[in-house]
Design brief:
mainly alpha, two-stranded antiparallel ribbon, 3% strand
Length: 1005
């Protein structure tokens, strides 16, 4: 600032927080350092006995250190080093817990102690008639046996195991080959023990809250599949268990299968097959979470295949005479127990002290980072516009604004994860709700920031250098003060939200800062009126920027006021019912309106057919790589089902699935072959195996958390490989048998993925490119309706059309990457879509929607946003839009007809050309609608805009009662709103012309 202004700064410039101010504006606000500086924690300011706002120096210095710490932390909240540290620590923690819980399987002694004797053949000598004869004893505990057992069968006969009790001779497993130890836990738990490790790998993801969410989803899916199995067991107590008839004397035909359950023999196979088909369909058509569907379907096909296998069926028979705890020995219950155990360990694995991966903490970090970034944008923009020439700083501001938009998905993810951490209870839940409202309020200015970006990039400082300098010198002080006071208000809110409590002192401090912001806004209005800017094109960028700044300040003030009112009225302490939240989740899962959407049903049908086809092959297939009652193919596809929204055959994703599963099945074999070189019972072998499992899991989990391209592959390698690694090194299975089994398994996996891709290709008749074309056509139609409503001065219709255009554009941005020619298996008859052209069109279309959003802001009476009013998205959309008369004033201007005649045909042409170009239809059909390149450039400048400025300026001078001086806030200033209206129309024409330029570029290729 000039020296005269620096010396005349009023006391309200001082922040109640002692917040480091912004950019060059803050340089004058000594003793506090500028935001661009590097004030370290513990470094105090050079204030004298008291600060500028009357606060004693001791208090000011304490706040200085606290805010300096917060600011420094905000700068590094999303640094690459911090993210790398988080991912590394979580991956190492997951590897440790998986290796730790694998110890009962790795260690021979622990395995024997916990689960009992594994199956083994022992050569024994028995004395009979004075002669020693050899005998082979098969020592093995049953799946449900625990404790001490004894073989009571005569020598040279099959063992007959009986639970040992005190009435028998002393039990000694080491001295007597007839005695056996069956452990403290049934062997069925050992068979399902790797489920704990696999569940951990598939559940842990970057943060605690997200992991809790995934864990609950996995448990729900597993429990639902188990409930179905308990129901099927109630109908058929033995399942399909049976044996082949050996003798007709038993009342059967030799060689035929005899089922233990007579009902199953009559209609069991049909009922079970219908159950498989129906349950899979219910999982897929529901709107449940992916984890619930994935785990539910995988256990469903696994258990039902075993249930329908005569060699397995139901191994634990439960009837009225059975012991009541026998149901805890069923495979279904065992899997439920190991799933819950895996979920608990997965959550514990994220609680690494130095990692700080809790979503609530990340939410606070992110709020600080967003606030810091927004403060930097306004500071640098004010500093840039206060200059006299264009510099590269404008590109730095543009980059910062684009980066804000990328944080939107992270904000939502952290908010959902923090809910699962806190369940919205207590201070933590209150903190989550406050931060959620803070983030929503911060992200609500994205449209304003797009306008700021346009202002910064469009300002040349050449055509109106003198006018710009005079105007900006009159407003620069007020603009700087408003920027600083509003930023301080948001930092104060963040500091208050840190503990989730708001006491009277904190509320008073926010009130005090709100008063300072109000004074700054009033000062801006006064300075603006003294500058007396006309409604003209020369100062349109400056006025638009100042209006956007005033909107940002007013939005933040509305937000802070509502928070204060909620705190004083006690509404801040009201949280939603957990049960009500649970019921809402159930209602959303089975929302008929969402389920009956055509795209959703098509996606469910494609997945259902591929999984059912693999299940039937596994059930009936025999020979080559197939064996009857094999669930591998169907189970694999349940874990790899195609997500909703994929509109073409994802050849790259299919390759990633194949690579991930194949490596997950193969790499553990290599690891096991190395471990087999070590003695089975050696401590070195045990240590090496623990280290190998820890390194394997940690490596792939780290890549899963940190890699963008190979995240999915790494997850599959870690998840599918862990079952093979969590296994005893010394088993009776020969390597030849193991290799043959794994070879067949990999063959089954490849066949399953091929079937999935084939069915998906056959049933996906509408390509992603056609869908993108349809969305852009819908975008063009909505755009035309929005402009038509604008020229008709119909605010409500314009609001609805802009929302529709924004929704169509959002879907188009999701579909665009799927249209990349690199993802095509081969080059077809149609010319490949040029992604640079497509992305350029979408970018300018997004900026065009931003201009329409700005037109809506100036066309409506001011209404606080939903974050300020604490409304849901549905409640916000139901708010009535009231016109403030700006569009009506535009409509009455004669030159508006010329503007209308220029814009509406261009928008209609745009809708038709985009549809034809993206759909790769007849090139001549859409090329004929394009103008010549020199005409396109001319159309980027809106004809009639200059005359419209003059007419509006004259109307404001001659209309009584509509004077800027009568307005109490710059956001209500009619003169500014009218200037922005014409400026936005000019920029809309520019963006439409740039989109047409990209179409011309495509036409000339």
């Amino acid at each position: 600032l000039p020296a005269a202004l620096r010396s005349s700064l009023p006391p309200l410039a001082s922040s109640p927080l002692g917040l480091p101010p912004l950019g060059m504006l803050a340089a004058a606000r000594s003793p506090r350092p500028a935001l661009g500086g590097d004030l370290e924690e513990g470094q105090s300011s050079t204030a004298s006995s008291s600060s500028g706002d009357g606060v004693p120096r001791e208090d000011t210095d304490g706040r200085e250190r606290r805010i300096a710490r917060v600011r420094k932390y905000a700068k590094s909240a999303h640094s690459a080093k911090k993210i790398f540290k988080k991912h590394s620590l979580v991956a190492l923690s997951v590897g440790f817990w998986v290796a730790f819980f694998g110890l009962p399987i790795f260690s021979v002694r622990l395995n024997y102690t916990i689960f009992g004797q594994r199956e083994a053949l022992i050569n024994a000598l028995n004395q009979q008639n004075g002669t020693l004869k050899s005998q082979q004893l098969r020592l093995s505990c049953g799946d449900i046996s625990t404790g001490k057992w004894r073989n009571v069968a005569p020598p040279y006969s099959e063992p007959e195991w009986q639970a040992w009790d005190d009435t028998m001779s002393p039990w000694d497993a080491e001295a007597n080959l007839t005695d056996i130890w069956c452990g403290f836990v049934p062997r069925s738990y050992a068979d399902n023990w790797p489920n704990v490790a696999q569940f951990i790998v598939f559940t842990v993801f970057r943060s605690t809250g997200t992991t809790v969410n995934f864990a609950v989803q996995g448990i729900v899916g597993t429990v639902l599949a188990a409930v179905n199995m308990h129901f099927m067991t109630w109908i058929f107590p033995h399942g399909a268990r049976g044996s082949t008839c050996a003798d007709s004397a038993d009342g059967c035909v030799p060689g035929t299968l005899v089922y233990l359950d007579e009902n199953y023999a009559r209609y069991g196979e049909f009922v079970c097959m219908m159950d498989v088909l129906l349950v899979l369909l219910l999982f897929l058509v529901s709107k449940g979470s992916r984890n619930s569907i994935m785990f539910g379907m995988s256990w469903h096909v696994t258990w039902m295949m075993s249930f329908m296998n005569p060699a397995i069926g139901v191994q634990v028979f439960i009837d009225s005479e059975s012991r009541w705890w026998n149901w805890t020995l069923t495979d279904f219950f065992v899997v439920e127990v190991t799933t819950v155990l895996g979920a608990a360990i997965a959550i514990i694995a994220t609680l690494v002290p130095k990692a700080k991966v809790q979503n609530l903490q990340s939410m606070y970090d992110q709020a600080m980072a967003v606030n810091y970034a927004i403060a930097q944008i306004w500071s640098e923009a004010v500093q840039y516009l206060g200059g006299s020439r264009r510099t590269a700083v404008r590109f730095q501001i543009e980059t910062r604004i684009d980066a804000i938009d990328a944080l939107a998905s992270e904000v939502h993810e952290n908010s959902v994860g923090a809910w699962w951490e806190t369940l919205d209870l207590g201070n933590a839940g209150r903190k989550r709700r406050l931060l959620d409202r803070f983030d929503t309020n911060a992200m609500d200015i994205r449209d304003l920031l797009y306008v700021v970006k346009t202002c910064i990039l469009a300002e040349t400082f050449d055509d109106n250098a003198a006018e710009h300098s005079i105007f900006w010198n009159k407003l620069q002080h007020a603009v700087g003060e408003l920027t600083i006071s509003t930023s301080d208000l948001m930092w104060l809110c963040l500091e208050t939200f840190e503990d989730g409590e708001m006491n009277e002192e904190e509320i008073d401090r926010i009130d005090e800062q709100l008063s300072r912001v109000a004074v700054s806004r009033a000062s801006l209005v006064e300075s603006f009126h003294k500058a007396e800017p006309s409604i003209s094109e020369e100062l349109s960028e400056e006025q638009t920027f100042i209006f956007a700044l005033a909107c940002w300040s007013r939005k933040n003030s509305d937000f802070a006021k509502n928070v204060v009112e909620s705190a004083r009225s006690g509404k801040l302490h009201h949280s939603g019912s957990f049960m009500w939240g649970f019921l809402q989740g159930v209602f959303r899962t089975w929302d008929i309106k969402e389920i009956m959407q055509v795209d959703h049903l098509k996606c469910a049908l494609r997945n259902w057919l591929s999984i059912v086809a693999c299940f039937l092959i596994g059930y009936y297939g025999q020979g080559s790589i197939f064996s009857r009652y094999n669930y591998v193919m169907a189970m694999t596809l349940t874990l790899l089902f195609v997500k909703e929204g994929s509109h073409h055959v994802e050849y790259e994703q299919c390759a990633h699935r194949l690579l991930g599963v194949a490596l997950g099945k193969s790499l553990p074999i290599i690891v096991d072959s190395i471990l087999d070189t070590l003695p089975c019972d050696s401590q070195i072998g045990l240590v090496v195996q623990i280290f190998a499992v820890w390194a394997y899991v940690s490596t792939w989990c780290f890549l899963y958390y940190s890699s963008e391209k190979w995240s999915y592959v790494s997850c599959l390698i870690g998840g599918f490989g862990i079952y093979q690694l969590i296994a005893p090194r010394c088993s009776n299975t020969s390597h030849d048998v193991l290799f043959v089994t794994k070879y067949k398994e990999i063959g089954n996996v490849i066949m399953a993925i091929f079937i999935q891709a084939l069915l998906h290709a056959l049933l996906s008749r509408t390509s992603a490119r056609k869908l993108l074309s349809a969305r852009l056509q819908g975008f063009g139609l909505a755009l035309r309706e929005a402009f038509q409503a604008l020229f008709d001065a119909d605010v409500a219709s314009m609001q609805a059309a802009v929302r529709e255009a924004s929704a169509e554009l959002a879907v188009a941005k999701v579909l665009a990457p799927e249209c990349d020619p690199k993802l095509r298996l081969y080059r077809g008859r149609k010319a490949p879509l040029k992604m640079d052209v497509c992305n350029g069109i979408l970018s300018y279309a997004e900026q065009l929607v931003g201009q329409l959003a700005m037109l809506l802001v100036i066309a409506k009476d001011w209404v606080p946003n939903r974050a300020a009013l604490n409304l849901s998205l549905e409640e916000d959309e139901d708010l009535e839009d009231t016109s403030c008369g700006i569009l009506e004033m535009l409509k009455r201007c004669p030159s508006m007809a010329s503007v209308r005649d220029n814009l509406l045909p261009d928008v209609a042409m745009l809708a038709a050309v985009l549809h034809g170009m993206i759909a790769a239809s007849d090139r001549s059909a859409w090329q004929e609608q394009l103008r010549k390149p020199d005409e396109v450039y001319a159309c980027t400048h809106l004809e009639g805009a200059g005359q419209l400025y003059k007419e509006l300026a004259a109307r404001c001078r001659n209309t009584s009662g509509v004077t800027p001086e009568s307005q109490d806030d710059l956001t209500n200033d009619v003169r500014v709103r009218l200037t922005i209206a014409v400026w936005s129309l000019q920029n809309s024409a520019y963006h439409i012309g740039k989109i047409e330029e990209h179409c011309v570029k495509e036409a000339t290729c």
